Amino acid sequence: MVHRVKDKNCTLSTDPWTNVNGKNIISYILNCGKDDFLLETLYTRSASHSATVIAADIRHVIKFTKFANIVAVVTDNTSANQLVWQTLQTAYPHIFFHGCISHVIYLAINDLVARLLWLNSMEGNYRKSRMIFQENQQLWTELRRLQQFEGKKASVLLADTHWGTIEKCFTSLLESEAILHAFVSGTDFLKVKTEEQKVKRQMGFDVVRFQKVFEQNTRPISDIYKMLLQLPSIYDEIKMSISEFVIITTVLKERYDFIYDDAHGVSYLTNPRYEGQGPGNQGWSRGLHR
After folding, report:
1. Residue 132: how many CB atoms within 10 A of its CB?
2. Is residue 281 included in any domain, yes or no?
3. What distances in angstroms separate CA 195 from CA 64, 105, 157, 175, 191, one per listed residue?
4. Domain CATH code at residue 70
5. Per-residue pLDDT tens for 172-184?
6. Is residue 65 included in any domain, yes or no?
7. Secondary structure of residue 136 in the 3-state scheme
8. Of 220, 224, 249, 247, which is closest to residue 234 (Cα–Cα)?
9. Are strands 24-32 and 9-18 parallel, antiparallel or unpaired?
10. DSSP-derived secondary structure letter, 152
11. Of 40, 41, 130, 283, which has the highest C-beta tally within 10 A?
């Protein structure tokens, strides 16, 4: 790795996640050209990813990685991380600190789930039904046996630091609907009596699905800018109340404004794909995208 990054400018990116034991962890990854290197994985030693812990760990990793020319550090767009940028910018004036542009999609999903009350209720009921099986080994074993027999995915456990788990939850629910009905037919989340309820559940899946395409590094960050401009018209075609549409468009505008700055604008304007020339997606995802 040392020879691969020699004389090259590199980006240090953080990837927070939660393991199967509920421990909060941050992985530190060195992005150098087309190469990605896992440098270190550290426990945050706390119930959340606090600014103090993150800043101390980033200092540790930068010191440990003296062989690389780190010119940028990219983290999630949380208030804790924004405080980290301010704290470390003074200590490292030659390093550019910024939030991951794709993370705004994850934040928008959380906003939508929180503000659309029926969607928030759907998520809460999913958690309850998921815990029923998780706490009963016999039920869980039988559920997995039936899912595997029918080629269905396992029910996903929601995790606040895992991108895409809400979408995966709703996907696994829709796939295993008949199986789950057999187990918990009395659960409100699974009992669908009207066509309106079916539409809402499908809409819940549609609302959170757009995050999926940005879970990997293969998408250029300029596509996020374009998506946030197009989503209001896409949701305008989905059957919903005016109040729900206003909530969705408000969330999208807030998150668009949250990340709209010089760095984001330059990344969009310098992408030749939007001028009808140049390469495809490959090669445009580096920098402000994990």
Report:
1. 14
2. no
3. 58, 29, 27, 18, 12
4. 3.30.420.10
5. 777 777 776 666 5
6. yes
7. coil
8. 249
9. antiparallel
10. P
11. 130
Whole-model pTM above 0.85?
A: no
Distance of alpha carbon 53 from alpha carbon 78, whole angstroms: 14
Q: In sequence order, what DSSP letters do the residues of 170-223 get, joined into one string? A: HHHHHHTHHHHHHH-TT-TTT---SHHHHHHHHHHHHHHHTTGGGSSTTS-THH
Are β-strands 69-75 and 96-99 bridged in parallel, bridged antiparallel, or unpaired?
Answer: parallel
Q: What is the pLDDT of residue 92?
A: 92
Q: Are 89 and 160 found together in one domain? A: no
DSSP letter for each residue of 43-77: E-SSSS--HHHHHHHHHHHHHHTTTSEEEEEEE--
Residue in this structure with the two tokens 């374009």, named with its chain if needed: 226
- Comparing C-alpha atoms, which of 279, 168, 166 is closest to residue 220? 279
Burial class (CB in 10 A: 0-12, 13-18, 19+), 145: exposed
Q: Confidence band (pLDDT; 50, 70, 90) for 186?
A: very low
Residues 154 and 169 in one domain: yes
| Number of structural domains found in the chain | 2
Q: Is residue 59 part of a domain?
A: yes
Residue 220: what are its φ and ψ, rounded to 5°? Answer: -70, 145
Q: Which amino acid is at 70?
A: I
Paired strand residues for 53: none
Rounded Cα distance between 55 and 62, Å, is 11
Mean pLDDT, to the nearest integer, of 84-91?
89
Which residues are CB-neighbours of 119 under 8 A, at least 6 positions away? 112, 113, 204, 207
Task: Tell me the mean pLDDT in the region 73-83.
Answer: 82
| Residue 16 and residue 155 in one domain | no
Token pair 């983290």: residue = 75
Residue 55 within any structural domain of the chain:
yes
pLDDT digits (tens, 9 = 90+) for 233-244: 878 887 778 888
Domain, as residue range, for 148: 105-258
